[in-house]
């Protein structure tokens, strides 16, 4: 982390930006540790402990109970009304994974844009280095 912090400092990242990146990254990692279980004889999942959810909520700056409710019983629009819908274990797991992937995607996109903005010289360039990675190209 020390090396990352030094690199962010060299690139001119403010302390608030660095802390936000660390909090977001940590919250994504903690989402992978959230545990849920299927209620017996029901199609409803429930939390198997709340410690990880509380950590994630704290890091993201949201209410832990609201976050857990959003995963377990999200509000769905039916016609013109909103109703709460109980989720089963696979749906809850999918929702947590989707949120983690979305957060990572947005964070990484912001990070790339921020680094590009910092490194932009505003001078017309004649040369550049590009990297092309074709997945599976080496398999014939």
UniProtKB/TrEMBL annotation:
Name of one Pfam family that matches: Myosin_head
Molecular-function GO terms, alphabetical: actin filament binding; ATP binding; microfilament motor activity
Q: Name one GO cellular component term.
A: myosin complex
Q: Which SUPFAM superfamilies match?
A: P-loop containing nucleoside triphosphate hydrolases
Tell me where in this chain the Myosin motor domain is found: 1-140
Q: Which domain of life is it from?
A: Eukaryota
Q: What does the record list as GO biological process?
A: actin filament organization
Keywords tagged on the record: Actin-binding, ATP-binding, Coiled coil, Motor protein, Myosin, Nucleotide-binding
**Family to which the UniProt record says this protein belongs:** Belongs to the TRAFAC class myosin-kinesin ATPase superfamily. Myosin family.
List the protein's name: Myosin motor domain-containing protein
């Amino acid at each position: 982390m020390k090396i990352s912090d030094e690199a962010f400092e060299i690139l001119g990242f403010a302390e608030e930006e660095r802390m936000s990146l660390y909090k977001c990254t940590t919250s994504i990692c903690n989402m992978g540790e959230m545990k849920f279980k299927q209620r017996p004889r029901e199609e409803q999942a429930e939390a198997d402990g709340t410690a990880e959810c509380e950590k994630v909520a704290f890091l993201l700056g949201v209410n832990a109970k609201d976050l857990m409710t959003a995963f377990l019983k999200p509000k769905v629009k039916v016609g013109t009304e909103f109703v709460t819908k109980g989720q089963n274990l696979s749906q809850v797991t999918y929702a947590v994974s989707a949120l983690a992937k979305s957060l990572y995607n947005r964070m990484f996109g912001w990070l790339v844009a921020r680094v590009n903005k910092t490194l932009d010289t505003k001078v017309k360039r004649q040369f550049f280095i590009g990297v092309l990675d074709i997945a599976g190209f080496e398999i014939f």
